[in-house]
Amino acid sequence: MSRRTPKLPSWLPIDPYILALIGTVAFAAILPASGTAAEVAKGASTGAVALLFFLYGARLSTAEALEGLRHWRLHLTVLICTFVAFPLLGLAAGGLVPYVLTPQLHSGLLFLCLVPSTIQSSIAFTSIARGNVSAAICAGSFSSIAGIFLTPLFAAALLGEEGGGFSADALLRIAVQLLLPFAAGQLLRRWIGGFLTRRKKILGRVDRGSILLVVYTAFSAGMVTGVWHQITPARLGALLGVEALLLALMLTISWYGAKRLGFGREDRVAIQFAGANKSLAAGLPMASVLFGAQASLAVLPLMLFHQMQLMVCAVIAKRRSRDPQEAHATGAAMTREPAIVG
Q1: Alpha-carbon distance 73 to 86, whole Å?
Q2: What is the predicted pLDDT for the residue at 179?
Q3: How does pLDDT run across 290-312, given as a tens digit for each residue?
Q4: The pLDDT value given to residue 68
Q5: What is the reported pLDDT for 13?
């Protein structure tokens, strides 16, 4: 008899990439880069961030983005969820300092609230739930573009010195490492877009490898400077509780808010998943630019929230898929769910 490999329940999507992230953090804790090695890792991380945003720009279809403008009310609703409702809740969580959260953990939580929506996860969950997949694609893309501009500006305004400060030097670093590569990718898309489309799997590994390098550099710096001594298990548990409440509130606001605005079921599904999810792939590189040596604490809430949103949204998507309604073409167009990454 052949032995079957035990599988995790379908409602509990422990992405192997999350395990890779955890392994990278553990490796940084055991063998952090210091001295010359830290400088090399920092330079490689800077290059990896630039490469990530170049690939984002090169793969974003301008035609698809323009086509999606006809759903401007839906996209505006997602942007409000991402860059208005989330930050307001993050600011409100400041009342938990210092009783529940430390100032550093609250800064990381607030940064999480400023990160753009994810594309891959929104599409995957919208497809499972038989929602408007094309709208989810466009909404995630618009959010990512807006995040390149809004996330650094909001971080500078709301986090002050903890977010790197609003200075000419900070703006220059953001432009060089984020905006310039993204613009270059858009300009070259005409010639390299087809090449990138045919090599999605390879580029996916490049994306993930680049993010792992960013994580290793950030957490190495945290180990060298001793920031991890500031976090106790009780504080970590409190952070998880606050993030669970944050996710529950945003899932509720996005779903029932869309209903009050008159959106149909398929559009509401897209709004809920695009409006309540945050992008790990976009947030980690931005944090490395904005926070520098303090990036390890800044990205911890985002990494925890990312895994939490995958698990919770997977359950919701499965339940929505059983709604007593016919699957329309937008939901049936994608028979295979994309890899849940960002």
Answers
A1: 18
A2: 79
A3: 776 667 777 889 988 988 898 89
A4: 60
A5: 52
Contact residues for 205 (Cβ-Cβ < 8 A; gap 6+): none
Tokens at 9, concatenated: 């329940």
The DSSP result for 27-56, as a single string, is: HHHHS---THHHHHHHHHHHHHHHHHHHHH
Q: What is the pTM of this model?
A: 0.78
**Cβ(140)–Cβ(115) below 8 Å:** no
Start-to-end C-alpha separation, the chain: 39
* Element housing 310 (H / E): helix 295-320
Which residues fall within 8 angstroms of residue 22, CB to CB, at 6 or more apart? none
Tokens of 27: 């490796």
pLDDT of residue 227: 65
3-state class (DSSP) for residue 115: coil
**DSSP-assigned letter for residue 160:** G
Percentages helix, strand, coil for the chain (3-state, rounded to 5) are 80, 0, 20
Longest C-alpha distance within the chain, in Å?
67
Class of residue 294 by CB neighbours under 10 A (exposed 0-12, middle 13-18, buried 19+): buried
pLDDT given at position 297: 77
Burial of 296 (0-12, 13-18, 19+ CB in 10 A): buried
Report CA-CA distances (Å) from 226 to 186, 290, 338: 40, 19, 38
- The stretches of 16-132 forming alpha helices (DSSP H) are 16-30, 36-59, 62-67, 72-80, 86-92, 103-114, 120-128
pLDDT at 127: 87
Which residues of the chain carry a pLDDT beneath 70? 1-15, 62-69, 160-171, 174-175, 227-230, 292-294, 325-342
